[in-house]
Design brief:
Layout (H helix, E strand, L loop, with lengths): L2 E5 L2 E4 L4 E8 L8 E6 L6 E6 L5 E3 L7 E6 L4 E6 L8 E7 L16 E6 L1
Length: 120
Amino acid sequence: QVQLVESGGGSVQAGGSLRLSCAASGIIFSTNDWGWYRQAPGKRREFFARITSGYSTLYDRSVKGRFTISRDNVEKTVYLQMNNLKPEDTAIYYCNTIPGVTLSGGSSYWGQGTQVTVSS
């Protein structure tokens, strides 16, 4: 079955760095585009970074220049290097395919996410 396991979150001070990982299983990895999403307290989940099957990347302007998405098709893992973190980056971080994994019953699948907390 599909499984997405995010890890690497934690609590850091503003200006700090974290590297998130997302290990995928039960899904074809190499031909999918992958993205990172985040959900801040009281807000909807939002997409902010994408890496295509051809390794092109795209970022929301809120993270551009600070975050870097990468992928390892052998390890079936997506990474997110986050530098110069800001308090507004505080959120639960998720990875998923683009446009997202849909299970056989039609529901969307999301992993458990990893919490990132940035203090000022």
